[in-house]
Design goal:
Helix 3 packs antiparallel against helix 14 (about 395-405), helix 4 (about 100-115) runs antiparallel to helix 5 (about 120-130) and helix 6 packs antiparallel against helix 7. The protein is an alpha+beta fold. A hairpin with a 2-residue loop joins strand 10 and strand 11. The protein is built from 14 helices and eleven strands. The chain is about 45% helix and about 15% strand.
Length: about 400
């Protein structure tokens, strides 16, 4: 009799546990709506071989990035924007930037989901939502997180996650599906006229050729849409799943394509404000090449990158070897600092357009900075040398990881 009672009690406890588990599952997961999310293409073996030929291997790169950069500033799950390893001299200690960009956490979240690390993805997602005030973040930062959050939701999402996604979407976009305007900082000439508002025409500015393009400018705040923040694939995903109004993708695509400067200069404006495209960003007489390349990536992800823009990028890579970060109207050429920030974006453009040569060239540029010393704590990571020290950037390393995964 005693044995029978114990058996009944055990069965009852199990039934309650199973029932409670089922109710919890239904509450948080069972009722979650299914969505269809378009993401970057899966990188095939042939493309990964191209990357590995330049010393870029996703498994090693991601492992080292986590080991070097996570948990350095306490128990945080976040990744700092950059990390400097110790130098050769005793006083050159390792140092974290202690800056945590939302877009960097979004890239880390995307990597966790791609690698099916559910626990790490859930913990990071929850910490992001609890830490960041999304209303105070820039549109581009929030769009980056929302794109990764959709990818996360497709794999592991709950009812609460969908509610969060709806709230974030409502805060980021207006009733017509456009990204909400924000305050932007742009260069203008001292006389107060926005050089960048002029139509570039055939690419020449004879009346301004004698001006000191970098030395005679001041900065002005405007309210508008930053073109590189318009994530077209995200917008299409949101519209296709009923989270943005019908026609949102087409309207935003028209906005971005309208930002192309000209056929002769197939780069893209920095911003759109009060019905006018603002062509320059931090240099009044130039186009920000890095901003344009990010816009090109968004267009490539949507299958809408103009052929002349793709041709311009190919020509720069093959003829010049590297990219400079400014295009000067009066000279008709790029100049300035090497635009190392956007080589991962070019890898993605190569992937999206099926251009193996472009992908190979971008891998070569990244691979030339892969750490190879066997004793280095950053072995297999991509570095930059700054003032004689080796610095590792989260965006660069994580984006390259994604571009070979």
């Amino acid at each position: 009799m005693r044995k029978k009672i114990i058996t009944i009690v055990i069965i009852s406890v199990l039934a309650v546990a199973v029932g409670g588990g089922y109710l919890l599952y239904q509450r948080f997961y069972g009722g979650a709506s299914k969505i269809d999310v378009d993401t970057s293409p899966v990188v095939s073996y042939e493309w990964r071989q191209i990357a590995s030929g330049h010393g870029i291997v996703s498994d090693y790169l991601f492992m080292r990035t986590k080991e070097l950069m996570l948990g350095k500033d306490g128990d945080s799950l976040f990744i700092p924007s950059s990390y400097m390893i110790a130098g050769r001299l005793s006083y050159q200690e390792e140092a974290s930037s202690e800056e945590y960009r939302l877009s960097d956490q979004a890239l880390l979240l995307m990597m966790y989901v791609k690698r099916a690390d559910r626990l790490a993805a859930m913990r990071l997602k929850d910490q992001i939502l609890g830490y960041y005030d999304l209303e105070s973040e820039s549109s581009g930062e929030v769009a980056s997180f929302l794109s990764s959050y959709l990818f996360y939701y497709q794999a592991y999402g709950s009812v609460q996650d969908m509610e969060n996604i709806r709230n974030i979407t409502d805060g980021l976009f207006d009733e017509d599906g456009f990204i909400r305007t924000e305050s932007l900082h742009i260069a203008s000439y001292e006389q107060g006229a926005f050089y960048s508002l002029d139509e570039p025409g055939d690419g020449s500015y004879s009346s301004l050729e004698t001006l000191d393009e970098q030395g005679s400018a001041e900065f002005t705040d405007i309210t508008g849409i930053r073109i590189s923040s318009v994530d077209l694939r995200l917008i299409r995903n949101l519209e296709n799943n009923g989270l943005l109004p019908e026609g949102s993708f087409d309207r935003n695509l028209d906005l971005v394509l309208g930002a192309k400067i000209s056929s002769e200069i197939p780069l893209f404006a920095y911003a759109y404000a009060d019905g006018i495209y603002i062509y320059s960003h931090d240099v009044a007489a130039a186009v920000d090449v890095e901003e344009s390349i990010v816009t090109m990536r968004h267009l490539a992800e949507a299958g809408s990158l103009p052929s002349e823009s793709l041709s311009w990028l190919r020509m720069q890579l093959y003829n010049s070897g590297v990219l400079a970060d400014e295009y000067y109207y009066s000279y008709g050429t790029t100049d300035g600092t090497e635009a190392v920030n956007i080589y991962p974006d070019i890898m993605f453009i190569g992937l999206e357009t099926g251009d193996e040569d472009m992908y190979d060239r971008a891998c070569s540029l990244e691979g030339s900075r892969v750490a190879t010393y066997s004793s280095s704590p950053a072995l297999s990571m991509i570095y930059r040398e700054e003032n004689g020290r080796f610095v590792f950037y989260a965006r660069e390393n994580l984006m390259v990881c994604l571009a070979v995964t």
